[in-house]
């Protein structure tokens, strides 16, 4: 196995400005990922993405939310908020892994396309190295990269193609990534 895959985590309308759980800089991250795809078309053997895709995620939706374990309603299945942000070029995405239908799910590795999970899909396509971009640095990006390492992939996070919710949690996520041996490139956007 020697292939490289780009994993685009959760670049969805609800996580960008104007969405129900927006992060500052989300739309700009969508645009930067599209620019990267155009500038380096041969960098990856495969490009995949994940989506939060909630049907009934139970306590993940809080009323009121605590913004730690529960959140405002977001990325409801088949809603506008669950769609990819329009600034994200989706033409080269080979598979979209849906996660969180009936429970909280942060890592792209918790998602599946049909009955195939992300780990199995990457192995079926001889991927050994993953690069992770998307939203948010301190939630779905960090968990995706850490799960990738646990699954035996060499992981890189392109931090300048991510945005974090808060400076403190983003800094903590970067420390976690560094400690796990994830290669880090650039710096994340934070409010």
Entry keywords:
191 residues, alpha/beta, Rossmann fold, 4 helices, globular
What does this structure look like?
The protein has a single domain (3-51, 84-97, 107-185), classed as Isochorismatase-like (Rossmann fold). The protein has helices at residues 26-39, 118-124, 137-150, 167-179; strands spanning 3-9, 46-52, 95-99, 112-113, 116-117, 127-135, 154-163, 183-185. β4 and β5 form a beta hairpin. The protein is globular and about 45 Å long. The model has no long low-confidence stretch (mean pLDDT 96). The strands form 2 sheets. It has a 6-stranded parallel β-sheet. A two-stranded antiparallel sheet has the order 4-5. Helices cover 25% and strands 24% of the residues. It is built from 4 helices and 8 strands, in the order βαββββαβαβαβ. The longest helix is centred in the N-terminal third of the chain and has 14 residues, at 26-39. The chain is an alpha/beta fold and 191 residues long.
